[in-house]
Design brief:
The complex is a heterodimer of chains A (380) and B (627). Chain A has 380 residues and is mostly helical. Helix content of chain A is 68%, strand content 4%. Chain A has helices at 2-12, 21-48, 55-76, 80-84, 86-99, 125-142, 151-169, 174-190, 195-214, 220-228, 238-252, 264-267, 279-312, 316-340, 358-376; strands at residues 106-109, 112-118, 121-123. A 3-stranded antiparallel β-sheet of chain A has the order 1-2-3, with no helix packed on it. The longest helix of chain A is centred in the C-terminal third of the chain and has 34 residues, at 279-312. Chain A is globular and about 60 Å long. In chain B, strands 2, 3, 4, 5, 10, 18 and 19 form a 7-stranded mixed β-sheet that branches. In chain B, strands 12-11-23-22-21 form a 5-stranded antiparallel β-sheet, sandwiched between helices. Chain B has a 3-stranded antiparallel β-sheet with strand order 1-8-9. In chain B, α9 packs antiparallel against α21 (598-613), α12 (336-346) crosses α14 and α12 (336-346) runs antiparallel to α19. Chain B is elongated. Classes of the chains: A mainly alpha (380), B alpha+beta (627).
Chain lengths: 380, 627
Amino acid sequence: MDLVAGRHFADERRPIRHLDPVLITGAGVLSIIGLFLIYSSKHAQLQAEGADPMFLVKKQITAMVLGLILLLLVAVVDYRFFKVYAGFIYAAALTMLVLVRIPGVGTTQLGAQRWFQFAGFQFTPSEFTKIALCVMLAAILSELRTPEPLLRDTLRVCLVAGVPMVLVFIQPDIGTTIVLVAITVGVLVVAAARGRHLAAVAVGAVVMIALALNLGVIKDYQLARLTGFLDPANNSLTTNYNKSQAEIAVGSGGLLGSGYLKGTQTNLEFVPEQSTDFIFTVAGEEFGFVGSMVLLLLFAVLVWRAIRISYLAKDPFGTYVSAGIAAMFSIQMFVNIGMVIGIMPITGIPLPFVSYGGTATMANLVAVGLLLNIHMRRFK
Amino acid sequence: MDRTSGRLRILALLVILMFIGLTTRLWFLQVLAADKYKDKQVTNRTRTVLTPALRGNILDSHGKPLVKNRLSLQVQVNQQDLGANSAAVLTRLSKLLMIKLSTLESRLKDPRYYAYAPIPVAFDVPKQVSWYVTEHAQQFPGVRVVEAPVRDYPDGDLAAHILGNVGPITADETKEPLFASYGQNDVVGQTGLERQYERYLQGTKGKSFYLVNAAGKQIRTIGSEAPQPGDNVVLSIDARIQRIAEQQLLSGIMRARGQADSTTGQSLVANAGAAVVMDPKTGAVIALASWPTFDPQWFVQGMTTAQYKARFNSSDGQPALNRAEFQVYAPGSSFKPFVALSALRSGVANEQSSYPCPSVYYYRLDPNHAFNNFESSSGYMDLASALRVSCDTVFYKLGADFYDKSAGSAKGTDLLTNDLLPFGFGSQTGIDLPVEAGGTLPGFDYALQHKSVYPFGWLPGNSILTAIGQDSVTVTPLQLATAYSSIANGGKLCRPHLADHVETPDGKTVKTIEPKCHPIPYTPQQLRFIRSALSGVPVSGTARTAFLQFPLSSIPVAGKTGTAQRQGFQDTAWFAGMAPAGNPKYVVVAMVEQGGFGGVTAAPIVRHIMEGLFHLPQTNPIKATAP
């Protein structure tokens, strides 16, 4: 019996039996809702152009299939493997960020150089930079010899995080930079960095930003975008036009929304970037406050599971990676929805799982793969 | 791991704060402020296109249209779309329309239009022009031929002054509250009744609602509201009487030009005149004529600046000026009945006494203060006879007595002015036209306010001359008709009005213009006395010749002539009459500028208008002119 019981116990601990069904359901439902919202956001426009109204949905499904394959690959290998190769992952991410800056290799679009273009698909390296940074920071902090990071360690972490931040920032991609900052802060907080160390780093960051402003590294339009939401009456800014249109879309949804495919703000192209950065307007306009709450609830589930996995992880590396991912998901959700409803500056951050975008979708699924991996292998 | 779980709590707390922030804001947007955003959403996706409403008609008292609409093919040029070869396009257009290029260019400079709006350059063009422009569209960029409703005047220049004209709204007008809802290309009443009753005539624009996308592209029609044509304004003007008044006025003016001025012997200039026919009981104006006149159609077809100047700014013509209500003249002896009434009221004179009528009146027997009698003089006469023969010297004495009595009375009481004010002198009648002159009733206070005219203040001579309607006394013909109406109707001063009521296109009355009358402080007995005195004027007084063979026994006429002096000009001829004298139905006033004697020039005009009013055989028939 003991043997049987022992075997049974060992069997119980087999990783495949410890997938997190809540996490999988949450991410899955969000992705499916995303497909419906993407369809709603662009079908009228695509139809008017004589294109297949399912065009974007099909591309998104393709990305999701690819993402699921990546998820499986990431989930199957023990996550500690990634700790070993964290340096390589980090270096690969930096290499891609550098390559994308090289004319002819990276693609310039809308004044920003952040894509690789091949075979009709775009690949955005900065999406994977986020995960690479989670892994890299977690690897550094989990190898500390002191119970909590010293100032030196904190600075080292900030330096490691600062390199991709700068590379992403000059693309320019302020949104992703903010996410990288949030990941760094999230991991440092969970890794028990001292409050005053974090404060010192924050002061340093402010000084750096002030310097960047004075040296003209930050372009005027970027500054205008970032501060535009503080001055909503100034409609001369395109960003404020976008913001006010997005607010009208969400606000006009009311309690229950205007009904699926019936949002005029969305279908008549008043809201810009409806399928990507402003996808939340579709939910807000067509499903109202109730629909918005459902989306928020699903994100709450997602972040809750990530934090729970961080708590359950058997080693600091797992804890830190999960914490980084939790920070990543929550900051993206907050900045994206906040920007749509006018409480955050307009920055190009997609809504995880919901926004149309191949690389982001794949990166998010890889992150879920990592979470599942850590969850499955939580037993020592 | 405890430390880690504590730190994870901090992370969780931050995330919870994020959710609280988002939920709060969403609650505000989607629940509290949802209605505001729903409105904005609707505004966003809807475009409203306005279609102009057909303007209301102006009808005479019998429902005959004086102003209506007709469709006209007009050529419009949008200068912004003319392109680089604007000169070539205009040359082509000039050949096609057979209009001189310079004329075309000057029309494009019409200051009444915005430079970026389509400017009409030719009206009532033949259909062939429209076809040609359509077929050769590439040769005529910015040119279009459109069919648009324009104002139509079935009776030509009849009542042109009171009807007024419409025109494109001016930049200044768009700022006025009256035109708050108007667009930049709207047509509005500019003058006369078109302006006065703009609110009713304009109608309600039609609206078409379109669903549009962010680029403003129309997706489909959502709905529409048909334009509501403007209301019709029905006048108290009787087109028949108006025509007679205009024709007889012109005829009288032409007749005067054949006569010699009594003082200089030169021919009378008789450059202009006016006539008013009024219902004394209500103030309803039955005819209001002014000559020279103009063709309102000119405004429809548009004028070049040169044409406008030639037609309207000529030195003596000023045909746009409505002399019946916007120009003031000394009333001369036509003012005497009101002075007589004042005298009766103030006890300066009475109905029975006799007064001397010498050829010269000396104030206080002072030979330095002599006032000549410009009318006939003969012995002693009562007040009625003094009116009948229009003896100046009798009235000089009344004026002097008023002055003396006022000077002796409590300070500041100007008895003559006080007595004349109730007849409405010195102030506008309030007729329903956009502009009106008020005339002058001078007196002590007036003299104080006009030191340049009265450097020594109000002197006895001023009162003496006021008593015969000279000095600074001025009235409009309409004002005089209103004052005579108060004698005719037994003691009410009524506000004159041209419109009787406003009705919808299908005849439902929207607004009735009620008579606005108030009593004047004269007794029916006093007024009856004056009417009776004035009824002697056409019989045996100053208008005897003018009313020869008029059936005065069946239709007694009471009236008064006036021959007013005007510095530097020939005399102004006046006649104000009412009939039947016992209970007058009509008050008729005629005035001819530089027309000589009132009894000779003005009284016949009134007589012939009265022949028309009472359907008598016309003793001065006018050859029928094509309407």
